[in-house]
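Lecture notes, part 5. Sequence design as translation. It can be helpful to think of inverse folding as translation between two languages: the language of shapes and the language of residues. The source text, in structure tokens, appears below.
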């Protein structure tokens, strides 16, 4: 079975069939939708995919965090088939369908936002969820501004592009919406030299307050929006003590705290959401956005907040044609059932422990491995020219990604300097596959350094 297979490369990459399809892609698809991987998928199971030439790859990207329960889970296929036999579509503004209600009830149960009574709405993508969360915050607070952070990625729609830090994602498409102000995210690896971790966290909390002085007074700020672990920014976790400080500042000024858990959610962190850790520490967010792994690959996203917040939103400003599509809802309900039943949060921590031990060995062994970080099974390895200077080493990462792919391991870069290798492997990966992937990655490091 492909589900239990190990990486096997039988042809030069791309193989002849893949090469022909990639050439067609170049003629039919915009080049701006870039892809550097020399494979064309024919089928996928678990953490593995087979290309059209019969080459087998281990996927450590998982659709960029979409495939936490893996490719083509048999129960998910059956759930989608069962719903598709009944009806494909029912728009919630016109006809109520129970799948939307069931999924909203489940999300309200598992999402750790502030407030005991919760409500959830559904849209289609992470960017849509983020934009709706901002609209909700503005409508509820009746304030015009938001604060986002350096290194942030929130999507490619217009408001989300304005919120996203890296301007390669939005070059030349302005003007952007007003009222978006940026603070400095606590990037501890590149924080002030000579500071302890505690001092760095205090430093970044102070930098956040500068936004109130230099950009927007707090009484005009509707929300603060950030990722619990920055994705495109380099897999940088928000330190818990810093989150507590931001929560306190928000509470003092009536500002809502929005956690963008689009990439971090659904067992990736070792809990269902990173915000579960925050809630246990007494600093839950007011609004959480989720997407990616929510429905196992079918487009769906969600915004969850207290009933008080949602009930304060002006009618008609939220909703949409495909939000909460019946097939997507059926898929999401099954995804959550599988995660809870199969103890995938615990499995995430088991995988993380294996990888973290190996990654930290590399940190000791290789001068180019500058930092290893993350929460649970969302980890990043930052590559530098040397540990003393910490100069980013994006060329090495590019070379490692290509070398790993040529040996059957798909990995992806991240970071504001493109010098981080991200780990987003499906949580259904077998121990043998994980071991082989670590061998391929270390071999690529050795070869390319």
């Amino acid at each position: 079975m492909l589900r239990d297979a190990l990486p096997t490369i039988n042809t030069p990459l791309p193989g002849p069939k893949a090469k022909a399809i990639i050439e067609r892609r170049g003629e039919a698809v915009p080049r701006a939708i870039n892809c550097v991987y020399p494979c064309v998928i024919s089928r996928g199971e678990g953490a593995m995919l087979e290309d059209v030439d019969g080459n087998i790859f281990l996927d450590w990207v998982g659709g960029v965090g979409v495939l936490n329960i893996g490719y083509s889970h048999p129960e998910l296929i059956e759930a989608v088939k069962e719903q598709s036999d009944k009806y494909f579509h029912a728009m919630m503004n016109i006809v109520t369908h129970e799948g939307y209600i069931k999924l909203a009830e489940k999300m309200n149960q598992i999402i750790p936002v502030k407030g005991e009574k919760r409500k959830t709405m559904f849209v289609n993508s992470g960017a849509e969820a983020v934009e709706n969360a901002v609209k909700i915050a503005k409508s509820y607070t009746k304030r015009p501004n938001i604060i986002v952070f350096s290194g942030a990625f929130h999507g490619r729609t217009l408001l989300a592009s304005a919120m996203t830090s890296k301007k390669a994602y939005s070059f030349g498409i302005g003007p952007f919406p007003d009222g978006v102000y940026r603070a400095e995210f606590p990037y501890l690896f590149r924080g002030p030299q000579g500071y302890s971790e505690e001092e760095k966290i205090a430093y970044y909390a102070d930098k956040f307050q500068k936004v109130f002085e230099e950009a927007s007074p707090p009484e005009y700020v509707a929300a603060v929006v950030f990722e619990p672990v920055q994705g495109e920014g380099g897999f940088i976790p928000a330190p818990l003590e810093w989150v507590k400080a931001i929560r306190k500042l928000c509470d003092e000024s009536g500002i809502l705290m929005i956690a963008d858990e689009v990439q971090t959610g659904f067992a990736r962190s070792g809990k269902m959401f990173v915000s579960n850790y925050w809630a246990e520490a007494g600093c839950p967010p007011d609004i959480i956005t989720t997407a990616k792994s929510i429905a196992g690959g079918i487009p769906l996203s969600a915004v969850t907040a207290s009933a008080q917040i949602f009930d304060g939103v002006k009618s008609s400003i939220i909703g949409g044609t495909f939000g909460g599509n019946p097939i997507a809802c059926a898929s999401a309900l099954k995804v959550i059932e599988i995660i809870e039943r199969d103890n995938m949060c615990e499995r995430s921590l088991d995988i993380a422990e294996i990888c973290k031990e190996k990654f930290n060995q590399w940190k000791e062994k290789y001068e180019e491995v500058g930092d290893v970080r993350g929460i649970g099974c969302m980890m990043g390895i930052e590559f530098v020219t040397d540990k003393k200077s910490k100069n980013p080493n994006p060329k090495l990462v590019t070379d490692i990604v290509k070398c790993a792919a040529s040996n059957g391991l798909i990995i992806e870069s991240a970071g504001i300097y493109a010098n981080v290798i991200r780990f987003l492997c499906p949580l259904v990966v077998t121990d043998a596959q994980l071991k082989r992937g670590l061998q391929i990655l270390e071999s690529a490091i050795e070869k390319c350094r």
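The translated text above is only one of many valid answers, since several sequences can fold into similar shapes. Residues 344-365 form the longest helix (22 residues).
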